[in-house]
Design a protein that fits this description.
This protein has 298 residues and is α/β, with parallel strands linked by helices. The protein has twelve helices and ten strands. 41% of the residues lie in helices and 15% in strands. It has a single domain, classed as TIM Barrel, CATH 3.20.20.70. Strand 9 and strand 10 form a beta hairpin. An eight-stranded parallel barrel has the order 1-2-3-4-5-6-7-8, surrounded by six helices. A two-stranded antiparallel ribbon has the order 9-10.
Length: 298
């Protein structure tokens, strides 16, 4: 049996677990905890209010751990992209994860400094462009993922991209525990992207009501809607309905798009508690081993 995957070897991590970068959720505490537990944590650069604040967040992470970590950069319509990218290069961030836009320039600059770049994709067209640009791996964002999800089932998107594009693939959408990680790796994924599971963590800097809502929700409580951001996105329905009611009453401006309208994936149905990030990582791997050994033979 092979030791690790292309992604774990590439990044120098023990487990194929990436805590996905989540707007207004991911923070240094989460990245440090996940990294120390054997996975890799990532955060959006825009979670810091300023570029200098972003630089300080990176330096804080590096002071607290030697584990690798990642930063997500939005390439399209981002007024801070050049400044934040310069910080990533100067601080030698181990992994850059790009979303939207053309990653060619970012990949070239990162590779010149020995940094890795993964690219979010939702279909083969974008995946082939990312490969041509030199991406080290693809984040296959499938249906059911939190945030701006794709529309293709992970059971199809992961093996399809692996076959058609031929570079490492990280499965995003539908992962919350060890059994779902085992399924993703069986499909050919080189790692799993866990977002919603890490919102329900003690380190996540969100209000308790958000975490409690994730624990209480089922997949039917997730709605895919474009009205909040202008692009289809998965949200917890109760918070989305609150947004709609406020807008109908003329008070929608008092609600913040990501702070008050809670984004989450369909995996809410698989999450039953709030616990530390390190315990989440350990639990996923214990469940992964249990799932592997429980598989029937024929």
């Amino acid at each position: 049996m092979a030791e690790g995957t292309d992604v774990t070897r590439m990044l120098g991590i023990r487990y194929p677990i990436i805590a996905a970068p989540m707007f207004l959720v991911s923070n240094p505490d989460m990245l440090v905890a996940v990294g120390e537990a054997g996975g890799l944590g990532a955060m959006p650069a825009l979670n810091a209010r300023t570029t200098e604040g972003f630089r300080e967040a990176i330096r804080e992470i590096k002071r607290r751990t030697n584990a690798p970590f990642g930063v997500n950069l939005i390439l399209l319509d981002n007024p801070r992209i050049r400044e934040d990218m310069a910080v990533c290069l100067e601080e030698q961030v181990p992994l850059i994860i790009t979303s939207l836009g053309n990653p060619t320039e970012v990949i070239a600059a990162c590779h010149a400094r020995g940094m890795r770049v993964f690219c979010d994709v939702v279909n083969e067209k974008h995946a082939q462009k990312a490969k041509q640009a030199g991406a080290d791996a693809l984040i296959a964002v499938s249906s059911g993922a939190g945030g701006h999800a794709g529309v293709i089932s992970p059971f199809v998107l992961v093996p399809w991209l692996k076959r058609e594009v031929g570079i490492p693939v990280v499965a995003a959408g539908g992962l919350a525990d060890g059994a779902t990680l085992a399924a993703a790796l069986a499909l050919g994924a080189d790692a799993g992207y866990f977002g919603t599971r890490f919102i329900a963590s003690t380190e996540a800097p969100v209000e308790a009501g958000f975490k409690d809502a994730i624990v209480a929700a089922g997949p039917e409580d997730i709605e895919y809607a474009a009205e909040v951001t202008g692009h289809p996105c998965n949200f917890l329905r109760p918070s989305l309905e609150k947004w709609r009611a406020a807008n109908q009453a003329g008070g929608g401006g008092d609600l913040k798009k990501w702070k008050d309208v809670w984004s989450a994936g369909q995996t809410v149905g698989l999450i039953g508690d709030v616990k530390p990030c390190a315990a989440i990582v350990a639990g996923i791997m214990a469940e992964y081993e249990a799932a592997r050994t429980a598989m029937p033979s024929f």
